[in-house]
Amino acid sequence: MQTVGVHDVSGLRGLIGEYGRLRRLEGHTPQSRGMRFNDLLAQMLRCYGHPAQSSLRAAGEIDVAFTVGGVRYVLEAKWEQQKADTGHIAKLQKRVRQRLAGTFGVFVSMSGYSSEALADLAHGERLELLLLDSQHVEAMLAGLVVPQELMGLVHDQAAFRGEAYTPLTALLTTGGTPPGQFHSPATPLIPGTAQPVLTVPCGAQPGVAAVGGDRVLVTASTGIIDADIARQAISWAAPVPGCHGNPLPENGESLLFTRGHGAARYGGGQITVLGGGFATPAALIPGPGGTTWVLSGGTPGTDAPSITRLGDRLGTQASHPLHCVSPRSAAWAGPQTLVIAASPGAIVQDFQTGPARQIAIAGVPITGLIPAGSGAVLTTSGDGTLGFLDLVAGTCTPVMNAASGPGDTQISGTGTTIFTARSTAAEGTGQACEVIRAHLPAPGTTPAVPEPAHPRTQPAPLPAAPPSRPPATPPPAPQGQPQPPTPAGATPVTPPPDPRIPWDVRRPDRGNPEGQYAVLDAHRAYYKVIVALLTLLVALLIAMVFAPEFSTLERAGAGCLAAFFTLMIIGFAGMARSPVRVEVGTEGIQVYSRTETAWIPWTEITRIDVIRVRGHLHIVAWTPQAALFPEYDNFGGGPQYVPSLGAVTLGAVNVLKAKRHEILRVLRHYGGGKAHQGAI
Predict the structure, then answer these.
(1) CATH fold of 189-439, please?
(2) How far apart are CA 679 and CA 545, in angstroms?
């Protein structure tokens, strides 16, 4: 199907970040979220070049009116906890029948639909509505499926099968036998040789992922296949047509893939959208500590190349700009070192020590990279040549040739067994992907590619990328933190943290130098009032215990409550004597509570803001090590881990003497670009 691509990739990426904040109710109530959601849907459609307007008031208010492929739609959206029922859908049916014939209704329910609502549509009269849920919305928002393609698929299901609602996975997945033709039975390879093992129909870009010496995942035009070379057997790993680039297996139960402008997980027969807004073709990259990254090549003149760390769902990705042109592939050669394949050679970006440096490599441009131990990567070129790139010496040594003839070649593997996937023009069949298994030369010629230290795990939730523009008044530079020089006109890149080296969370000494921090103290009177009220309540309960007019059961209950509230008095009395104290300084943030001291350096904070959590405003810091903090405070008022945010609350605003805007100014002064820039 001919589809319209994304006209505004950076705009779509901004909407993805806003969607994550809407989902977490950051700065919104459920009511205000619903109103903003209508505008977000209209903006998303306009990013694809489709005319759309929200809150159209005519013959009954319409949430969104839009046109895709010459077909006109009126859309009703509901973002509530309950599933949409028959009454909600009947309202939209009336709106559609008030319009010109040929106008279709689209109902979006972020919580799905009741069985009664689906049954009523299935057994009703002429079908005039199409039903979408959060998965459909996220797929379009990410660019995994463009609106024209999605609406075409939904229309086909409704027209040919009479189904108003079809889940995203059922729309995108295919059936039948996986395509592919094995070559002659694979034989044991001697070092330094290569052997073609499989050919499959190829789509936009070849892709390969080694699962072992005898198993490989290959991106074909009709999906991602799992090929067992020893048994010469093929099965579906992810029957999703239109994927491109290397897939990324996870724990043997699921895999990640890129399609269109988005990235998603396929596991348990379900598709979960993880990120999007990437310029095509995007490439998945395994990162340090089991993290997952996406390389986006950018759009010349409008959108810069970037490296993006994926979270556990859409709206939690964090992007960082790259200063290079048309990157083809990338690989992490260390916790802070990213190697990027970009003509005429490779770019090495060490986020800890300084700016990027270029390594010129003569010959055919590099098309694929994989780590090959500390300070080195294994490369493949368009002619199939494997090379060993020494980042310290700045040299690339040819190792062997694993293909014949030119083509777009990708690479994957561990140990001495390497797989390459090369796109070729197969006569009579169009584009094809040839999979070649290579055995690296004997030890001493080139190092073997190391096995992964850990099985891949799901990355922790991340906030949206912090704002890249500096504050109006630059804050003092944190002492002791390396400050890489930044080229003129370039945007500083936040280095990815190394999750294997946690800091001292319960640091007993003061983390900020004397005189280089601001103090946010709590109201002692706040706790004293609570203690007084609880004391009065306990006195009343004790009076009930000794009052003869109450039954034995009632007096026993009063005694239990008195004991419980007495414990609360003890806790709040301790907080009144030693209230929470937050110190924000040049080195980080230190929280003193009744029970302990907590410390977070700025180097470990990706974003900090003042938002509403559990009904109250809190200072909230996002850090990859958020799970190190407890999920309760034991009457201490200290930091708490909030799993739903993947962040840490550092103190409630209502117990601090400083006002919200004063707290934000302090955070901006010492935190710079990591503090929220638009809330003051």
Answers:
(1) Methylamine Dehydrogenase; Chain H (2.130.10)
(2) 52
Please tell me whether the peptide bond between 497 and the residue prior to it is cis, using omega within 30 degrees of 0: no
CA torsion sign, 18 to 20 to 26 to 29?
A: positive
Distance, CA of 138 to CA of 150 (rounded, Å): 12
Q: Which residues pair with 585 in a beta bridge?
A: 517
What pLDDT was estimated at residue 479? 36
Cα 97 versus chain centre, distance = 40
How far CA 590 is from CA of 584, 585, 601, in Å, comes to 7, 8, 8
Sign (positive/negative) of CA torsion 172, 176, 180, 182? positive
Exposed, middle or buried by CB within 10 Å (0-12, 13-18, 19+), for 64? buried
Q: Mean pLDDT of all residues in the chain?
A: 82
| CA pair distance 677, 680, nearest whole angstrom | 7
Residue 213 DSSP SS3: coil
User: CA 6 to CA 519: how far, in whole Å?
Assistant: 47
- Residue 43 to residue 11: CA distance in whole angstroms: 9
In the chain, the percentage of residues whose pLDDT exceeds 70 is: 84
SS (H, E, C) 606-665: CEEEEEEECCEEEEEEECCCHHHCCCCCCCCCCCEEECCCCEEEEEEHHHECCCHHHHHH
What is the strand order of the sheet 262-267 is part of?
Answer: 243-250, 254-259, 262-267, 270-276
Rounded Cα distance, 252 and 236, in Å: 13
DSSP 282: P
Mean pLDDT of 62-66: 92
Q: What CA–CA distance (Å, rounded) separates 318 from 482?
A: 21
Tell me how far apart the alpha carbons of residues 397 and 412 are, in angstroms, rounded to a whole number. 18
Q: Are β-strands 292-296 and 283-286 bridged in parallel, bridged antiparallel, or unpaired?
A: antiparallel
* Nearest C-alpha neighbor of 337 from the set 326, 328, 345, 346: 346
Residue spans per domain, the chain: 9-172, 189-439, 467-521+579-680, 524-575
d(CA 318, CA 461): 10
Could you tell me if 124 and 243 are in contact, meaning their C-beta atoms sit under 8 angstroms apart? no
pLDDT of the residue at 658:
84
What pTM was estimated for this model as a whole?
0.67
Instruction: Quick: pLDDT tens for 163-184.
Output: 999 999 999 999 889 999 998 8
CATH architecture assigned to 9-172: 3-Layer(aba) Sandwich (3.40)
DSSP state of 212: S
Q: Provide the strand spans (E) within 565-615.
A: 581-585, 588-592, 597-601, 607-613
Indicate if the pLDDT at residue 214 is higher than 90: no
Q: What angle do CA 274, 275, 281 make, to 5 degrees?
A: 120
Distance CA(264)–CA(256), nearest Å, equals 6
- What stretches of 24-134 adopt beta strand conformation (E)? 52-57, 61-68, 71-78, 104-109, 129-132
- HSE-up of residue 214 (Cα within 13 Å, Cβ side): 10
| Of the listed ranges 69-78, 158-167, 482-491, the one predicted with least confidence | 482-491
Q: What does the pLDDT average to over 322-350?
A: 86
Residue 95's nearest CA partner among 132, 58, 60 is: 60
Instruction: List Cβ neighbours of 311 (8 Å cut-off, separation of 6 or more).
Output: 274, 275, 317, 318, 459, 460, 461, 462, 646
